[in-house]
Amino acid sequence: MNLATSVTARDLQHGYGEGFARTPVLHGLSLDFRAGELSLMMGASGSGKSTLLAILGGLLRPQSGTVELLGTAIWQLSARDLERFRFHNCGYIFQGFNLFPALSAVEQVALPLLFGGERESQSLKRARESLDEVGLTARMTLRPAQLSGGEKQRVAIARALAGSPKLLFADEPTSALDSSNGEIVIALLQKIAREHGATVITVTHDPHLGKHAERIIHLQDGRIADDALPVRASRAAALISLPLTPPEPLS
Amino acid sequence: MPLSLARATLLHEWPRFLPGVLSVAFAGILMLVQLGLLLGMFGTVSVLIDSSDAQLWITSPETQSFDESRDIPASLGALIRSQPEIEGSDALRTYDAEWRLDSRVRVGVVLVGLDASGDAPSCPEPMRAALCARLAEPMAVVVDRAELDKLGADVGALAEINGHRVRVVGISQGLRAIGATYVFASTQTLRAISDAPLPGIDSATFILARVKPGTDLKALRDRLQSLLRPSAYRVWSRDEFSNGTQRYWLTESGVGAGFLFSSLLGLIIGIVITSQTLRAVILASLREYATFRAIGVPSSKLGAVVLEQSLWIGIVGAALTLLLSALIVALAHAFYIPLKLTGWAIFVAVVIGIFTAGISGLLALRALYKVEPAVLLR
Ligand SMILES: Nc1ncnc2c1ncn2[C@@H]1O[C@H](COP(=O)(O)OP(=O)(O)OP(=O)(O)O)[C@@H](O)[C@H]1O
Ligand SMILES: [Mg+2]
Q1: Which in A197, A229, B141, B269 has the greatest CB count within 10 A?
Q2: Is B364 helix (H, G, I), strand (E, B) or coil?
Q3: What gap in Å lies between CA B316 and CA B263, rounded to an integer?
Q4: Which residue of A has its CA nearest to B2?
Q5: What is the ipTM metric for this complex?
Q6: Residue B333 CB: number of other CB atoms within 10 A?
Q7: CA distance linking residue B345 with residue B36, whole number of Å
Q8: B60-99 per-residue burial string, b: 16 or more CB within 10 A, e: under 16
Q9: How far does residue A53's CA lie from ligand 2's centre (Å)?
């Protein structure tokens, strides 16, 4: 096994419904992911991307097959142990930002740490660092209603980052955003992969995001149709386009 | 203030929680007002016990209530007085009679025969200053201000009780009871009116005793009871007899059961509305909760958030109950409605309000425990 391999999935099968009504979604899928890389998963609607991501991320038990995250076969853990594993190793970003309307940005980010038993001062400190990293230093005290869509998604990313996850799972994190905000978000995810050595697996519909990824996987009817590196030139372009934080508006 | 999702949500989205708070407050007020009316009304059935200066009451053995008692020999008083702890003792007699005034007024009354002396144990507190002594005058009676209209009388009025001419020599205040119209007279007057049947056998409805200060009342009562044989007499402390009388009225009238039933109904409605309120709040944030479940926050931690919210609903609802009850009590007093609230009743209402909210929170938890993080991936 390659040392940097952090996610190993073997023979994943899954379907919804039972008996005659059963629709197979994944047909014996095997995949590896490496730490420090951002992998994009693309494919037509209904091709099984979200299902695969949920299985890889420890949120949906596959009907057969195994998933090893950081050397742990997660689907053999008890529910409580899996929960603990997710808490210590995984971060999640969804299309909807899923922020509590009542909380300020810094509170949103600090709350999971607080629930995990961290002291409040420590949680808030981590939350501030995390928000700094996504470029929201000036927005910490604002509630979701006062934030733009792109800012909300960055708060959600900061929340996922606050627990220093080694694995980050994102399901269409940019599809509720315009293209420039989408670029900011995906570049941020790539930066996280590189600087934190995290494994970032992102489902997306947007072919333009390919230039920020180390790897693009195409799913078709529950099978891998294509698994390739994006063109070198666009990789270079991704590196150049790096200033991640948008310029602060003059106020 | 420490970061609390429960409190932040309550403050930020308070209109969502309003139905729950109002229903808790409503259930509490429903209970308190009914209880207040009950206490106000049924508190009066024991008014002569409560206002007496006698800590011990002796009745016939089967007696359960002030107005349902059989006569006992008045000679018992001598035995009672022989006890060293007893400071004074006398008899109280009641006699059902008919009051007539002119040709218009005909009222069934309860004639209450007392010792015509201000410091007799049987003299009710409101009459102690002057009225009891005034009863010494033959065929003198005292009636309560609240009964004047019913009796058609005023001070100085002449009336007839069972065909005997009586004169109203004074008006008492605060000696009104539901279920009986009391007319106070001296023992001698009562004897004259009731045409005491067998001379020599003097009977009384109650024997009352005032004990010396510092006496262990319970021990004295127990000793007297064993002295008097439980099969022949019953010895009560004043509080026991008062509570027993009120309890008897509550149960015999069926009002107690009605009160319990409607309070329970209010409680159930409160629980249903509050738990639905909390459920709606959970459902509104379902995706946020699901995200936290995905991150690996245990359900129990999120459940604690819901329970904290329900607790706050209970506290605010109970506070609202107190506020509105105070208002209602003030209104009732302004309109002479016998509504009485004790600290004890208010305490119970607050506890029940918080309990209502707590149960609602527990019921609402089911919505939370059903949250599946996989719903977020679509
Ligand atoms: N909970 C479910 N119950 C039944 N069928 C489901 C369920 N979730 C997904 N499916 C079906 O499984 C198939 C794959 O769904 P999935 O969500 O993985 O697709 P996807 O590739 O993420 O699509 P999209 O790009 O539209 O998000 C679809 O045909 C969908 O209808
Ligand atoms: Mg999907």
Answers
A1: B141
A2: helix
A3: 20
A4: A120
A5: 0.87
A6: 12
A7: 8
A8: eeebbbbbebebbebebbebbeebebbbbbbbbbbbebeb
A9: 9
